[in-house]
Amino acid sequence: MLSNITLGQYFPGNSFIHRLDPRSKILLTLLLICVLFSVTGYLSYAVLFACIVLVTLLARLSPLQLLRSVKPLWVIIIITMTVHMFFIMPPEGHTILFKALGLSITREGLEQGLLMSARLILMLLLSSILTMTTSPLELTDGIEILLNPLKKIGLPAHELAMMMTIALRFIPTLLQETERIMKAQSARGADFASGGLMKRAKSFLPILIPLFLSAFRRADELAVAMEARCYRGGEGRTRMNQLQLTVRDAVAAVIVMALAGAMLWIRVGA
After folding, report:
1. Burial class (CB in 10 A: 0-12, 13-18, 19+), 143
2. Cα–Cα distance for residue pair 35/68, rounded to 1 Å
3. What's this model's pTM, rounded to 2 decimal places?
4. Cα distance between residue 106 and residue 96, in whole Å
């Protein structure tokens, strides 16, 4: 069910991970994602996966909730796997495992497809831990402060941070709305499960119009609510809770940098 998708949701808590400064969590997550796209090999990915498991336990998150965050992009993961298996050939020497209808699967293509799929899954898990342990308000403040230096070149840091946070916040809301519309259409006789690919795609068209109308209505209600609270952008705004780096953030930074260094060392050693 769409309501089981946890991408973009925040789960309140008082764990070590929850109490980290949002700026630290954002920067350390970006660091791990950059390292993830810089290394190859199962061992590096296994080290990062073990780190994700440890962080999940420290944050007291349900592993099932974390795995559900991968659900919305399973189609992209499968397409990535398929493209690498069938259409990417190594420049030199390859071992064909299967060949039919003019298509062939090589051992090297299969390995590369598995690595790319694992890379996408790990990136989703890292991003989900960030959103699950950081409230939308903290995420907005953290992104805004990190983007503040770019104000000198005219970048609207506050507005950009708010748009990104609102977009993340409304992912689960829109998914719940989609499920509600699908149930209403099914009660009226709509069939979303049978037929070929084109028929099933056409059956989703009646969902799109009410979904867009609902999204526009929610956006208008949000704009009215912000105006009613005298919101006029980030200029001159103050915060009730000021962000402050602590020893916890220093410990987390040392651990993550050590992990990133270990992954890079594994790649160099390999």
Report:
1. buried
2. 24
3. 0.74
4. 4
**Amino acid at position 170, single letter:** F
**Which of 261, 263, 254, 252 has its CA nearest to residue 50?**
263
Chain segment 68-127, per-residue pLDDT in tens: 777 767 778 888 777 777 666 555 556 666 666 666 667 777 778 888 888 888 988 998
Number of residues assigned to the chain: 270
Q: What are phi and psi of 99, to 5 degrees?
A: -145, 130
Residue 224: what residue type? V
Q: What is the 3-state secondary structure (H, E, C) of the chain?
A: CHHHCCCCCCCCCCCCCCCCCHHHHHHHHHHHHHHHCCCCCHHHHHHHHHHHHHHHHHCCCCHHHHHHCCHHHHHHHHHHHHHHHHHCCCCCCCCEEEEECCEEEEHHHHHHHHHHHHHHHHHHHHHHHHHHCCCHHHHHHHHHHHHHHHHHHCCCHHHHHHHHHHHHHHHHHHHHHHHHHHHHHHHCCCCCCCCCHHHHHHHCHHHHHHHHHHHHHHHHHHHHHHHHCCCCCCCCCCCCCCCCCCHHHHHHHHHHHHHHHHHHHHHHHC
Q: What digits encode the pLDDT tens for the residues 112-160?
A: 888 888 888 898 899 889 888 988 778 888 888 888 887 788 777 777 8
Q: Given the structure tokens 């030199």, which residue do they identify?
A: 92
Rounded to 5 degrees, what are φ and ψ at 8? 90, -5
Q: Rounded CA gap, 126 and 33, in Å?
A: 8
Give the separation between CA 120 and CA 118, rounded to whole angstroms: 5
Burial 123-133 (b: 16+ CB within 10 A, else e): bbbbbbbbbbb
Please identify which residue in the block is written with the tokens 């993961």. 77
How far apart CA 29 and CA 142 sit, in angstroms, is 13
